[in-house]
Amino acid sequence: MNENHPVPPVIPQADAPPRPPEPSPSLHDQRPLGDDPAERAPIPHVFAAIESLLRQPRRLMFQLRQPGAGKLTGAMLFAALVCSLVYGVVAGTFSGGAQLWAAPVKIAAGLMISAAICLPSLYIFTCLSGSQARLTEVCGLLAGLLMLMTILLVGFAPVVWIFSQSTGSLAWMGALHLIFWFVATLFGVRFLKAGFSHSSAKSHAGVNVWIIIFLLVAVQMTTALRPILGTSETFFPAEKQFFLGHWGDCLKQSAGESKTDSRD
Amino acid sequence: MAGQTGFAEEINCVRLNNVNRRLPNSVNHELSTLLRGETETLSAWSGRWDTRRFALHLAVIVFGAGLYGAAMGWWRDPQQAFYVAIKFPLIILLTTLGNALINAMLAPLLGLDIPFRQSFSAIVMGFTITAAILGAFSPLLAFMVWNAPAMTPGISTGPTYNLIKLTHVAVITFAGTMGNARLFQLLVKLGGNQTIALRVLCAWLAGNLFLGSQLSWILRPFIGLPSLPVEFLRPDAFHGNFYENVFNSLLRLLHYN
User: How distant is the Cα of B129 from the closest Cα of chain A, in angstroms?
Assistant: First the structure.
């Protein structure tokens, strides 16, 4: 280097703004999984799995195709279980008492049983649609759906708690939980569909039908395991009912209370 | 090489001195940067956690929204002014905290890959701008209330009450819109895409409006009524919710019962 004519050094920018984040590959990016080296980084623990699901879903999808993905699926199921228990406790604060333990147990069990009931049909539908996904990958994607749903529900938990403390209307709280559950499921289903789009499926019709089945099973599970929000002398309901009938009864009861209130 | 290092150190010293010279005016400087929505600087701020800056934003929210709240409650009673001065910033802070987790989760899911800290600071900055505007309008509102006739039992049906109410709605709408417009610009800068920024802003707005409305309902009264006592919370604050009330009002309006 010529000492007589020093090249001006690069001055570090003390107050320079950091570069905007590199746009992460979209969930619906159709490039092959693992194309980006970052997607090939292993997911060592459950927190990394949560982080990947939110920020790098393609990394999670890639890892679910690798040998030993069962451990990752197990970790995701465990996270879903813990998150659903946390959300259940918050839901239970509406009635308090025994519901503080009954609601989390019912919500967590209901979610896991719904997933277990729907898993065989999901595998059949994916095979029928020409997908190359193996059963372990299907299990992993379903676990991802459950984990994403439940962590979003935990995100909604502070809002649920505030409403639980300020309303006595069972119908209103039921509707609020259903709205949050629906939003969370929407994101979960989006992940599942994105996962299947990388498995050479010829059509999404089968997965779409399965999504409707899963929604119906999950909603019916809330009726089968009722009361989740309200109170009852028995842990399980004495009378069997379909969810539409149950919702109708709740709305009628709520309308009756509302009329009484307005007359008061 | 030694010459190069010395030159760089000298330049850095000059830069640091410039930064230090700016410090006495930093509050003013930071507020004006926020209000002007200088996205380059704001995105840098949101990227790095600075406790002093966060405390400043918090102080602007507490004082700005507090002053506006005081002007709002003053018409009913000085004690009501004191209560509303506490409640107004409380709504903003509780809404930010209550939705922090879900907002941070929604951002990456909707395509804006920013960490929790960055989404939290972006929202706080949006609210800081809103609170600063509210604070700036508080003397005007106080003057308006000072000129208004005293609150008497029949006033809630008269034009003065409605005028004051509408003025509050207009000012709060303006402040909220500006805060969100600046937040949108920041999100565009962070995400590099208007569609993603709009998507994230709408999701955050929906959540914040949903929770904020309920918190406002719990923490009522704000303007107050002469027929009701001055109190921090109504005795039925935790009975019912905002949306239930709107729904029941609609039913009554349609003569459902």
Answer: 20
Check CB contact of B190 with chain A, cutoff 8 Å: yes
Give first-to-last CA distance, chain A, whole Å.
92
Q: What is the 8-class DSSP label of residue B206?
A: H
Mean pLDDT of A173-191: 93
Q: What's the whole-number mean pLDDT along residues B11-38?
A: 64
pLDDT of the residue at B255:
63
Taking CB atoms and an 8 Å limit, are A166 and B40 in contact across chains? no
Determine, yes or no, domain membership for B230.
yes
Task: Find chain B residues with C-beta within 8 A of A21's C-beta.
Answer: 113-114, 190
Could you tell me the pTM of the whole model? 0.79
Tally the domains of chain B.
1
User: Using CA atoms, how far apart are residues A120 and B101, in angstroms rounded to an integer?
Assistant: 34
Q: With respect to residue B190, please indicate whether it lies within any of the assigned structural domains.
A: yes
Quick check: is B21 in a domain? no
Q: Does A19 touch chain B (CB under 8 A)?
A: no
Domain membership flag for residue B39: no
Q: What is the 3-state secondary structure (H, E, C) of B156-187?
A: HHCHHHHHHHHHHHHHHHHHHHHHHHHHHHHH
pLDDT at B2: 45
Per-residue pLDDT, A26: 64
Single-letter code of the amino acid located at B223: I
pLDDT number for residue A184? 96
- Which of A164, A167, A260 to mutate against chain B (most B CBs within 10 Å)? A167
- Record: contact B101-A154, CB cut-off 8 A: yes
- Phi, psi of B246, rounded to the nearest 5 degrees: -65, -45
pLDDT digit string (tens) for B208-253?
999 999 999 999 898 888 888 888 998 888 887 888 888 877 877 7
User: In chain A, what residues touch B246 (CB-CB under 8 Å)?
Assistant: none
Task: Provide the residue range defining the domain that includes B144.
Answer: 50-253
Write out chain A residues lying below 8 Å of B16, CB-based.
14
Q: Which residue has the tokens 């402040």?
A: B175
Give the domain ranges of chain A: 42-257
Least CB–CB distance from A17: residue in B44, B97, B111: B44
